[in-house]
Amino acid sequence: NAEYMGSFSKNTTNMAGTNAMMNDAFQDVVMGQAKRDFIAQQRENIEEQVVIEDRSKADTSKLEEDIDDDDLLDDDDPEIRRLRDQRIAEMKQLHSRRVDNMSRGHGQYLEIDESEFLKEVTSSELVVCHFYHREFERCRIVDKHLSLIAPNHIDTKFIKINADKAPFFVTKLAIKMLPTIVIFQGGVAVDRIVGFDELGARDDFSTAVMAKRLADSGVIKFQSGKVTRQEKAMFRFQKEEEDDEE
């Protein structure tokens, strides 16, 4: 019995040592993966920052060229000098706002997940959020138009979220039909576009029609010169119908 107990004690000690080695190896694997994930994330963040800085440099170069053009004006005239200084100040302010907006994802049409939703809709004053379903053709049509509008409206953030993967906010915002576009101002939902009824009730509406509807909500500024005669007629028809209903 004493010999058996001694053998058992020795085996137990060996097993404990083996388990300890396995635990250490497992920890090494986990830590190694964590380090690789961290490095990958840092690399991704650096690449994003490089893109932002490249855009910023391009804008800065354009700003400097415009200012150099102004140097050709007659600085002896105090009124011209005042107007020039005012214009430079306005351009610098606009440039600064543009860089800040781009650092927060403006100028792009980005997909987010449910965990990012609150941060994204509250970190910018103006936000357009498309609730979509990956298999719905009309959602893809909305994607096409918003991806074209986003780069031309830097003051507004454009995002999309998979409704299937955001059940909490689908319920909270009473999303009943897809596609649904929810417009936020100051973190508050102020308007929505449900389906295509307000976009001509057809799938082949133009990007200008979408832009006009977003402008009606105040989330972007609309360039009316890009609207076709057909679209203007459609807007007049819709307005007449609304007036008749009132």
Strand count = 5
Strand order of the largest sheet: 1-3-2-4-5
Q: Estimate the helix proportion, in percent.
A: 55-70%
Number of helices: 7
Mean pLDDT figure: 74
Characterize the biggest β-sheet.
Answer: 5 strands, mixed
Low-confidence stretches: 1-9
- Give the CA-CA distance, first to last residue: 100 Å
The quaternary structure here is single chain
Shape: elongated
The radius of gyration computed from the alpha-carbon positions, rounded to a whole number of angstroms, is: 29 Å
H/E element string?
HHEHEHEHEEHH
Proportion in β-strands:
5-15%
Secondary-structure class: alpha/beta
Report on this structure:
It is a single chain. Helix content is 60%, strand content 12%. It has helices spanning 2-70, 78-103, 117-122, 137-149, 167-172, 207-216, 229-245; strands at residues 109-112, 126-132, 157-162, 180-185, 188-194. The protein has a 5-stranded mixed sheet. The radius of gyration is 29 Å and the shape is elongated. The chain starts with a helix and ends with a helix.
Question: Which terms would index this structure?
Answer:
246 residues; alpha/beta; 7 helices; 60% helix; disordered N terminus
